[in-house]
């Protein structure tokens, strides 16, 4: 079947397929936060030391972040449906292993396996949407739903994690993935029909796989270690240096090999490059906020895990509204930059409100409106970002283009957690030192005030990061609004103003 035929005859089962793709994406995204709530209980049950507890998070982050590009390329090579189903089955088995873990080694190993199969699953899910939804208006609706899940799934994980941990036990934060995965895999197998002619059957770029995986693992581990060991730690610095060398070698390799793992045409397009960069920065701010608000509500305000999870509901509601009611409705009417730029600024205003946090701040008067603004802004910006990241890319590159979206989010999350937590810790220490007199009278009060002062200091940085993300979106992204007709797979197709090809940065062949 020709590409033209694929565009004119969309898959009649595409909306059913979206339901199963969305379910799988929700599973992957909420898994990033659901384990955080359960970690203290798992640590006690399995006798994990404070020094080793970070590996429950780090093992997943390293495998997932390091193998995303490889997973995207596998999706282009094997076929997106097959990769999607294999990723789901593997994720379910890894989750079963984690729930049944009898020692820390089993738990760490299961988290690494979850990361491996998540790296197959996530890019396959997004690239399936990219090739199945070719009409601009339908694409807007589909990516609106996907964007809401990608943005709000982390908060859903906090709610579900709190509920399962408090009412059952920590093991169910792993077991809960199994029904998600089984339903999504069965639905995908019977419903999804991948368009023909979209595979990239070129030989696998083994040097690219090794260099990208090692480079991304070094980068993610560098930021993860910085959080616990400090930025001046020798191994931390060594990881960053190694990452720079490996990723530079990867870029040089990709410009020379015949069948690159990451064709430079994917990232050197100014629109996609702008999306990857602005999205990564926004996620830095978001992940830091999840961390600070969770600690503020549980430690400072004394909320239970379940109550903390429900306290994040306004942000989820804002994201769903921004993504499906604002982003999806306006995406075919205005250029993406006019949604992403203002969206990140609205989120920055919400973040700005949270710089006013104090020990006794009102939830209804401060935290709730701040979350609503954050959710509305992020939802409005995420939706066109997800769509534009794969828009106009050749079908054979849709898997790796989708993997780059997930890579920017994963690296952004690692950076955000480490960078903002380090800033908060430094500010808290400085505050405690300068208020030693209060500590002599009321050490517990000083501890809480120092913690909140650290949070607000780091949140100011998050405000600035979101403003920079907005500026990048407005400056780099120049694609016009998608036309109301079909969106093709060729480069630059579907832009009413025809600017995507015009501003594409050429790649010099070697």
Automatic annotation (TrEMBL):
PROSITE patterns: MFS (PS50850), SUGAR_TRANSPORT_1 (PS00216). CDD domains: MFS_MMR_MDR_like (cd17321). It is a multi-pass membrane protein. It is found in: Cell membrane. Pfam families: MFS_1. NCBIfam families: efflux_EmrB. Residues 17-482 form the Major facilitator superfamily (MFS) profile domain. It comes from the Bacteria. It comes from Streptomyces pulveraceus. The lineage of its organism: Bacteria, Bacillati, Actinomycetota, Actinomycetes, Kitasatosporales. The keyword Transport applies. Keywords: Antibiotic resistance, Cell membrane, Membrane, Transmembrane, Transmembrane helix, Transport. This is MFS transporter. Coiled coil: none annotated. The chain crosses the membrane at residues 20-42, 54-71, 83-101, 113-133, 145-164, 170-192, 204-223, 235-253, 274-297, 309-327, 339-357, 363-390, 411-438, 458-477.
């Amino acid at each position: 079947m020709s590409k033209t035929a694929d565009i004119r005859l969309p898959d009649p089962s595409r909306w059913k397929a979206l339901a199963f793709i969305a379910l799988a994406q929700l599973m992957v995204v909420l898994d990033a936060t659901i384990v955080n709530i359960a970690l203290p209980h798992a640590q006690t049950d399995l006798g994990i030391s404070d020094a080793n507890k970070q590996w429950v998070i780090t093992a997943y982050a390293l495998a997932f972040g390091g193998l995303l590009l490889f997973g995207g390329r596998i999706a282009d090579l094997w076929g997106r449906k097959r990769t999607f189903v294999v990723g789901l089955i593997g994720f379910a088995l890894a989750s079963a292993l984690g729930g049944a873990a009898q020692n820390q080694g089993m738990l760490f190993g299961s988290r690494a396996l979850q990361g491996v199969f998540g790296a197959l699953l996530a890019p396959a899910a997004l690239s399936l949407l990219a090739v199945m939804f070719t009409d601009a208006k339908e694409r807007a609706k589909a990516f609106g739903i996907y964007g809401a899940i990608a943005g709000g799934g982390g908060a859903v994980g906090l709610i579900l994690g709190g509920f399962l941990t408090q009412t059952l036990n920590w093991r169910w934060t792993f077991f809960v993935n199994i029904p998600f995965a089984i339903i999504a895999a069965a639905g995908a197998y019977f419903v999804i029909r991948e368009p023909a002619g979209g595979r990239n059957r070129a030989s696998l770029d083994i040097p690219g796989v090794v260099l990208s995986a090692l480079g991304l693992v070094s980068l993610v581990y560098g930021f993860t270690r910085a959080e616990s060991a400090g930025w001046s730690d020798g191994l931390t610095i060594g990881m960053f240096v190694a990452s720079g060398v490996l990723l530079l070698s990867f870029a040089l390799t990709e410009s020379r090999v015949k069948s690159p793992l990451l064709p430079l045409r994917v990232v050197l397009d100014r629109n996609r490059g702008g999306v990857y960069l602005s999205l990564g920065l926004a996620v830095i701010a978001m992940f830091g906020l999840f961390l600070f608000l969770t600690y503020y509500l549980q430690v400072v305000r004394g909320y239970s895990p379940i109550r903390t999870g429900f306290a994040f509901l306004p942000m989820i509601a804002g994201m769903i509204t921004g993504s499906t009611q604002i982003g999806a409705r306006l995406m075919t009417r205005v250029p993406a930059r006019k949604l992403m730029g203002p969206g990140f600024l609205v989120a920055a205003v919400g973040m700005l409100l949270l710089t006013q946090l104090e020990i006794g701040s009102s939830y209804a008067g401060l935290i709730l409106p701040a979350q609503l603004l954050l959710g509305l802004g992020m939802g409005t910006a995420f939706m066109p970002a997800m769509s534009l990241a794969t828009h106009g890319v050749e079908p054979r590159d849709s898997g790796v283009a989708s993997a780059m979206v997930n890579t920017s989010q994963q690296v952004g999350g690692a950076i955000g957690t480490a960078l903002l937590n380090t800033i908060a810790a430094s500010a808290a220490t400085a505050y405690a030192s300068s208020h030693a007199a209060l500590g002599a009278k009321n050490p517990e009060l000083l501890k809480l005030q120092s913690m909140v002062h650290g949070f607000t200091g780091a949140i100011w940085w998050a405000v600035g990061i979101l403003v920079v993300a907005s500026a990048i979106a407005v400056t780099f992204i120049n694609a016009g609004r998608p036309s109301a007709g079909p969106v093709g797979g060729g480069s630059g197709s579907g832009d009413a103003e025809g600017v995507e090809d015009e501003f594409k940065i050429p790649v010099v062949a070697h």
